[in-house]
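Module 6 notes. Inverse folding takes a fixed backbone as the condition and produces residue identities as the prediction. Think of it as a translation problem where the source language is geometry and the target language is the twenty amino acids. Below is one complete input and output pair. Work through it position by position during the lab.
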């Protein structure tokens, strides 16, 4: 149900995506940073409210991670175009997410829907990707040199992206190889 407050907050985060992209491409990195922070806060708030108000919905369970991915992938692509992130990290991040979405769609087509649940490595990966984006946006917006911190954040986010992709691929392959089919299908 879209009309729950948490779902409306999530939709608001999706609406922020083009505004953040506009801010980055306009060179207003400070605005982009604060919008990114606002999006992060809204992610925490919608999850908290969904639990507190008992307003968790199936729609929200799908919409929330899509909003997160839309924001992160858009920021990574835009930061790369602007020369602030290397292409390899963007390729890794986008390829991982496309691989996961493709596996979910293929599972449905094969009449073997896979349960969508985040792995621990995926949560660490998301945290590293968010930290890298915040570091780049913040250092650009506030005009300070982060030194080797950016390189460390790049390696951490890149490594976790690859490990997370491999973990999901292994889980998906086990699921596809199993003989179980969704009940009622």
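Target side of the pair, the amino acids:
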């Amino acid at each position: 149900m879209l009309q729950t407050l948490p779902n409306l907050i999530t939709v608001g985060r999706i609406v922020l995506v083009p505004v953040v992209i506009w801010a980055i491409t306009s060179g207003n990195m400070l605005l982009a940073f604060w919008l990114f922070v606002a999006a992060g806060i809204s992610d925490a708030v919608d999850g908290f409210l969904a639990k507190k108000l008992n307003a968790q919905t199936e729609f929200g369970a799908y919409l929330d991670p899509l909003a997160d991915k839309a924001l992160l992938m858009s920021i990574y692509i835009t930061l790369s175009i602007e020369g602030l992130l290397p292409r390899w990290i963007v390729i890794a991040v986008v390829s991982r997410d496309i691989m996961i979405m493709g596996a979910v769609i293929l599972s449905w087509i094969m009449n073997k829907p896979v349960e969508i649940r985040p792995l621990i490595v995926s949560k660490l990966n998301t945290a590293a990707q968010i930290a890298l984006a915040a570091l780049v946006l913040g250092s650009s917006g506030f005009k300070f040199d982060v030194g080797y911190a950016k390189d460390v954040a790049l390696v951490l986010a890149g490594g976790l992206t690859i490990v997370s992709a491999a973990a999901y691929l292994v889980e998906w392959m086990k699921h596809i190889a199993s003989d179980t089919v969704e009940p009622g299908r």
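Reference fact for the lab report: The longest helix spans residues 149-177.
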